[in-house]
Amino acid sequence: MAHLIKQDSANFELSIDQLDEVAGGGWFSSVTHFIHDAGQAIGKFLSSTPVAVLAGIFVGGGAIVVGGQAAMKQN
């Protein structure tokens, strides 16, 4: 969709704020950057060795408990 432009205002420079708005800046851009940064931080935290070890213990322990309960029901 073409916008009608007045001839006298066709040659002007945009301010930094106007350029930021045109480029998708403003609060929405800040929110998306925050979500991206938070996601990266959570990913780094979850992939750290102590967290991975604790998660392995938790999942392994749960598997042993569930397996033991299933074995008890079969006997």
Task: Provide an overview of this structure.
- By secondary structure, this protein is an all-alpha fold.
- It has a domain at 49-75.
- It has 3 helices and no strands.
- The longest helix is centred in the C-terminal third of the chain and has 26 residues, at 49-74.
- The chain is rod-shaped, with a radius of gyration of 28 Å.
- The termini are far apart.
Overall radius of gyration? 28 Å
Number of helices: 3
Order of helices and strands: HHH
Number of strands: 0
The largest sheet is: none
Structural class: mainly alpha
Question: Quaternary state, please?
Answer: single chain
Shape: rod-shaped
* Amount of beta strand: under 5%
Whole-number mean pLDDT: 75
The rounded distance between the terminal residues' Cα atoms is: 74 Å
Poorly predicted regions:
none
Percent in helix: over 70%
Short description:
The chain is mainly alpha-helical. It is built from 3 helices and no strands.
Q: Could you list some keywords that capture this structure?
A:
75 residues; 3 helices; mainly alpha; 71% helix
Blueprint of the fold:
Elements: H1 16-22, H2 27-46, H3 49-74
